[in-house]
Amino acid sequence: xxxxxxxxxxxxxxxxxxxxxxxxxxxxxxxxxxxxxxxxxxxxxxxxxxxxxxxxxxxxxxxxxxxxxxxxxxxxxxxxxxxxxxxxxxxxxxxxxxxxxxxxxxxxxxxxxxxxxxxxxxxx
Length: 124
What we know:
The chain has about 120 residues and is mainly alpha-helical. The protein has 4 helices and no strands. Helix 1 runs antiparallel to helix 2. It is elongated, with a radius of gyration of 16 Å. The model has no long low-confidence stretch (mean pLDDT about 95).
């Protein structure tokens, strides 16, 4: 069985778990949010592990860093949307806090991965 390198990254696994969490939470949103906040939240959370995978497929380190940055941006988008979902009473404080813990962990891993890649760039 062929397995690609990104599969072994813990940050990819954690972002996949966050995706499952978000999909479960989003399924409880009102039907009126099917094509609104819920759809945007799903798109953003899918973007996190997708960009980790795509970045790892790139040969150039600068491109890899670029995709890590996109992944981080999507992660922040997820958090912003969760805050709005909380404000609208679609999720409770416990759900928000549980997701925040996952998001903080993933953000630290993405920052670490970016730092690691950045050290591979030639020094000026």
